[in-house]
Amino acid sequence: MTAIVHAHHTPTLSERLKDASAAAFIALILGIPMIGMTTVDQGGFLAVMTRWPQLALFVGLTFAGRILFSLALETIKRRSQGRKSGKSAASAAEAANAALKRGTKPESVIGWLAVGIAVALPIFFSEDRYIIDIATSVLIYIMLGWGLNVVVGLAGLLDLGYVAFYAVGAYTYALLSTQFGWGFWEALPVAGGLAALFGVLLGWPTLRLRGDYLAIVTLGFGEIIRLLLVNWTELSGGPNGITSIPRPSVFGYAFLPPDTEGSIADLLGIEFSPMHRLLFLYYLILLLALLTNLFVTAMRRLPLGRAWEAVREDEIACKAMGINVTTVKLSAFAIGAMLGGFAGVFFAARQGFISPESFTFSESAIILAIVVLGGMGSQLGVVLAALVLVMLPELGRDFAEYRMLLFGFAMIVIMVWRPGGILANRAPTLIHVPTGDKA
Amino acid sequence: MNKKTLLATCCVALMGMTGVAHADLAVGIAGPMTGQYASNGDQIRKGAEQAVADINAKGGVLGQKLKLEVGDDACDPKQAVSVANTMVNKKIVFMHGHWCSSSTIPASDVYNESQILMATVSTNPKVTDRGLKNIFRIMGSDDQQGKVGGDYIADHMQGKKVAVLDDKSAYGKGLADEIAKELAVKSITPVLRESITAGEKDYTGIISKLKTASVDVLAYGGYHTEVALLLRQAEQADLKLTVISGDTMTNSELVTAAGPAANNVMFTFAPDPRKNADSAAVVKEFRDAGVEPEGYVLYAYAAMQLFADAANKAGSVKYTDLRKAMASNTFNTVVGPLSFDDKGNLKSPGFVMYKWQDGKYDSVQ
Amino acid sequence: MTGKTLLSVQNLTMRFGGLTAIDNLSLNVPDQAITGIIGPNGAGKTTFFNCLTGFYKPTEGAVTLNHPTKGPIRLADLPSHKVAQTAQVVRTFQNIRLFAQMTVLENLVVAQHNALQKASMFSIAGLLRLPGYRKAADEAIERALSWLKRLNLMDIVNVPAGALPYGTQRRVEIARALCVNPLLLCLDEPAAGLNPKESAELNTLLLHLVQEEGVSILLIEHDMSVVMNVSDHICVLNYGRKIAEGTPAEIRVDPNVIKAYLGEDEDDQPVEKAS
Amino acid sequence: MAQALQQLINGLTLGSVYGLIAIGYTMVYGIIGMINFAHGDVYMVSAFIAVTTFTLLAALGVSSVPLALLVVLVVAVLFTSAYGWTVERTAYRPLRNSTRLAPLISAIGMSIFLQNMVQVTQGARVKPVPPMLSDGITLFTSGSYSVRISSAQILIIVLTVVLMAGFTWLITRTAFGRQQRACEQDRLVTAFLGYNVDRIISLTFMIGAALAAVAGVMVTMYYGVVDFYIGFVAGIKAFTAAVLGGVGSLPGAMLGGLIIGLLESFWASYLSPEYKDIGTFVILIMVLMFRPSGLLGRPEVEKV
């Protein structure tokens, strides 16, 4: 096969400058009303405040950035041209075999390493509430990411209302525990089941819709659930949420101050410390997250899991193979919803307080971003993305304001750069190793 | 491998951040520093900063300098809980906040657990009704506020048609319920009792309802943004409304947004502490610094004074000592003398009716 | 050839708004034989397949499959996945629809989904790794490998299907269709993109399938070397109508077919403008 | 009865605004087959531009309301078009031949980006502008209830009608309109015919943004309060309007907008002001389920 080499034009310096000037000009236009000017309240009336230096900085950065970007693009193009070769069965097979040799080894090594670090973390930071809190948050997002990954990453269904199932789980536990005195472990399966039921209820009529329509319907569903929670005050407490949700207990023993009935500190005869509960919560979510991971990984290797991926790849071909696409999608939706529900139960139990504000569209967007940025379908990618996205704002306090801004920016850049996500390489679920020379 | 290094770096960075030993005494404030109600948060911050500076200038508390930690909950209950956790981690010994009742209620559970004393201006009765021992309210509560509002309507607006509206927030609904309760006592039946969803822009539907019922007086529990929108849309629909509301209407953004219609807003608020003889020096100090000590500025100042006095009286900043001192003494502050009952409510709260007039509010009789 | 009719199409009509893609088509497809469907572009061949396999609901007419064990099945009443699952009518696509990111082996195992899903008891037996499921899974792999071996595709078993060259993808798609255990295999231009050697191999394979495996084949093809060499029976479509039917030898000399292919009157056809 | 008439007027006003935004969704969907999720936020940006310009004009001492409105409209349309252009150029064009989900996710990213950009640069607080055009005409009085249409409402409705007429002319009678429609039918053929498809798509985004800018200015003037979150809600509702009318159909977008506006108005005053948004979302789901091609749209045939 002959490789086709496109004649490649390298832009001259003046062309580059012209291009960068154009970009800077657009930056100026866009920047004038947003960066250049703002309005401030002067106690009864507004006044315009100008920020020309910031605008100049922004335009300058755009100019420089554009030049650097085009240079970088040039280098990447030149390099990839060297690698580009004809596509033939032999070369494809070679590439695949090479990939097999490299294998999934490094990924699984990193995975085990991550588990090790996660288990050992509290040993080093057993007195640091802050670290344990952050780590718990990261794990909640990882679990949500893994749940949504079933729907978006594996089955390829864009769900913009995932947070609804998270909310269903959280409110189910909150109501069952505060109204009927249910414990965490009794409520967990019920809440998961209820979330799955909601998934089926939403999915049944809507899953035959095309991808982007489905996205909008799920978004609408997410908003309906949130609006119901805001407005149905009798059930949900409205915008004020539900307070004093009991924390999870261990075999009926709770993490309560000493001399309270059922205090685990009394039972074990150790000194009470609020940290014990935090550590317990941390290990609980770690356990839930790991179980989620095991479950999803196992599902992927089963017929149903493979059908999810097949539906993502080509629905029409699936139908031609006799696969009932609706059932397959519905199962992905229900299982994703159930995992979201479990995460919701934990969230409610950990916070001790929930309100509709925790279940807005931006929460859905964050979970989606974790799945998409990590690489759709990649379990490790989710971990990576959750770590980065939750830790970023914590590392620099002043950064927090810009977190969502960077979020949006990263979503665009990563989509443009790698439409499949960062860790986009898919590990096969089946590998045939020939026995003997030619089997 | 990359990830491992990243993680290690993160861990080291975090250790560095939290490992700093606090030689100073950390005290916290929390409220909406950003978001819709940021100007109220700003008042709290200015008041507390000035108070801490003044206390430190006099040698601090028990020989230690105060260090102010500021938390931003944007009036969002979810953020309030995470702010509370952060504050606990910063080992604060006293918290002034939060501002919104819906933030204070969930956050107080966290402070209570970690045994941190709070002084709040949140007015919802539930704030102090839940049996928490660590919370003191340095302002009246909505039942008292609602009574003043209801009485005012009964006494000064006889024969007018009244509607009671709220925004479903803990504060808004609480206040509206209390006003309605007081109206019932005075055997006035509101022609309409409704809720709206805060954050929306189009309230023409509810305005239309008010108009159909020929409402003259709107008793509203909620925040200033919605009041501004309601007033504007009422004006466009040619409906003349007088709004009776609560302490949240002290925000001057109400005037910016509602324009001249803001002159129809009356609200209950604690007696203006700027008029106290005791506060003259502090008020002057604020004005010299270019800050008008309106709204919650002096309350934040008073909260810090309260803490300093209580710590000095107890001779310690330990929770149990501090609590005992606070519960059993009367403190002279810039908002007047403060003393608390068993629940942590102010013993002698007062509310006065105010009215906006051309960009300023003043008390009415 | 058994002489029996496997599939009978009666007065099939498919309209899209004002456009009639298939016009009153009647056709009998013999059992255990290869039936070629030819015709110029836009003659309605692929639409015919879509009506057959449940992707389109025909406007009028009936399509009946005489299943050897299940009796007559009306295909137009079935949703597309049931056509493959129950009636065992399996198709390939003109523009190749493989599961691009999945490996060739995975593609072939997915094709056996229904049997495997039953064996895994809706994933429960699968999650518990019960022996019954493991046996079924191993058998599915064996079956896939045996077809790959037959089609000489063993060296690309673990390659993602999307990374393969066009001609290879065609063969993988046929192998995948065979894994569904078809009674009637509908191939939409299987020789497109194949080189002459591959084309010849395809001929051998098709004949083998009919003679050894008892599969019947419905074949849309432009490559006359394939159609004329393997078909037992040919049906020619033009503008949605059947214009000729018969053995390859008969078709070769049919004046209607020659006219349609040389396109005597096609010059006058107005090119449809975007409206 | 009087109340119904009043709500009809209020609903028409609201519906006009939704319709103007919905056109942006429908045009973009027609031409590149994607949901421009960031469109609602482009509208929100325009509202902020309007607030700044209003404030600036007031500071410069422009007291004539019609003049101020005209200037604000022109400024907002110009700057907002630039935003529309940039959104397409940076977030969508590189993904034009990608999978269906990639541009949608990129669009969500753009929406988050714009929302937070405004939050960071303009602040999270609501921005008020002083009331203007709040006088009006009392149509008739029944009992104590006077049905009234304010000058702002008249302006919104009239301006929408004029814009719709102009826009219909643009699409049906001009060279650009023909190219635009050709592009909707078949992008490849249009390119073969020698038209610059990229330019046509860019212009489509700019026109959509310009109409959203008009809506943004009108809303700023009508409600007088603007915050960074208005784009999300208005965007969803306008999108619902576009779907209801039939995505790709311009009269459908307007019709859908009016229906949603009226529905919301009547729902708020007769059923419950709290659940009116749920009403909108339920309609959205119902329409997509039972009539995905909308009221005026053409049904789509699945290509196999």
Automatic annotation (TrEMBL), chain A:
One of its GO terms (molecular function) is branched-chain amino acid transmembrane transporter activity. It is a multi-pass membrane protein. The chain crosses the membrane at residues 20-40, 52-73, 109-125, 131-152, 157-176, 182-204, 211-229, 278-296, 330-353, 365-392, 404-424. The keyword Ribonucleoprotein does not apply. Keywords: Cell membrane, Membrane, Transmembrane, Transmembrane helix. Pfam families: BPD_transp_2 (PF02653), DUF3382 (PF11862). It is found in: Cell membrane. One of its GO terms (cellular component) is plasma membrane. Residues 16-120 form the High-affinity branched-chain amino acid transport system permease LivHM N-terminal domain. PANTHER family: HIGH-AFFINITY BRANCHED-CHAIN AMINO ACID TRANSPORT SYSTEM PERMEASE, HIGH-AFFINITY BRANCHED-CHAIN AMINO ACID TRANSPORT SYSTEM PERMEASE PROTEIN LIVM. NCBIfam families: PRK11301.1 (NF008450). This is Amino acid/amide ABC transporter membrane protein 2, HAAT family.
UniProtKB/TrEMBL annotation, chain B:
It comes from the Bacteria. CDD domains: PBP1_ABC_LIVBP-like. Residues 1-23 form the signal peptide. InterPro entries: Leu-bd, Leu_Ile_Val-bd, Peripla_BP_I. Coiled coil: none annotated. Residues 26-359 form the Leucine-binding protein domain. Keywords: Amino-acid transport, Signal, Transport. Pfam families: Peripla_BP_6 (PF13458). GO terms for biological process: amino acid transport. Belongs to the leucine-binding protein family. PANTHER family: AMINO ACID BINDING PROTEIN (PTHR47151:SF2), LEU/ILE/VAL-BINDING ABC TRANSPORTER SUBUNIT (PTHR47151). This is Branched-chain amino acid transport system substrate-binding protein. It comes from Insolitispirillum peregrinum. The lineage of its organism: Bacteria, Pseudomonadati, Pseudomonadota, Alphaproteobacteria, Rhodospirillales.
TrEMBL record, chain C:
Keywords: Amino-acid transport, ATP-binding, Nucleotide-binding, Transport. It comes from Insolitispirillum peregrinum. The keyword Transport applies. It comes from the Bacteria. GO terms for cellular component: plasma membrane. This is Branched-chain amino acid transport system ATP-binding protein. Gene3D superfamilies: P-loop containing nucleotide triphosphate hydrolases. GO terms for biological process: D-alanine transmembrane transport; L-alanine transport; L-isoleucine import across plasma membrane; L-valine import across plasma membrane. Residues 7-264 form the ABC transporter domain. GO terms for molecular function: ATP binding; ATP hydrolysis activity; L-isoleucine transmembrane transporter activity; L-phenylalanine transmembrane transporter activity; L-valine transmembrane transporter activity.
Automatic annotation (TrEMBL), chain D:
One of its GO terms (molecular function) is L-phenylalanine transmembrane transporter activity. It is a multi-pass membrane protein. It is found in: Cell membrane. GO terms for cellular component: plasma membrane. The keyword Transport applies. It comes from the Bacteria. One of its GO terms (biological process) is L-isoleucine import across plasma membrane. InterPro entries: ABC_transp_permease, BCAA_transport_permease. The keyword Transport applies. The chain crosses the membrane at residues 12-35, 42-61, 67-87, 99-118, 152-171, 200-222, 278-297. Keywords: Amino-acid transport, Cell inner membrane, Cell membrane, Membrane, Transmembrane, Transmembrane helix, Transport. Signal peptide: none annotated. Its main location: membrane. Belongs to the binding-protein-dependent transport system permease family. LivHM subfamily. PANTHER family: BRANCHED-CHAIN AMINO ACID TRANSPORT SYSTEM PERMEASE PROTEIN LIVH, HIGH-AFFINITY BRANCHED-CHAIN AMINO ACID TRANSPORT SYSTEM PERMEASE PROTEIN LIVH. This is Amino acid/amide ABC transporter membrane protein 1, HAAT family.
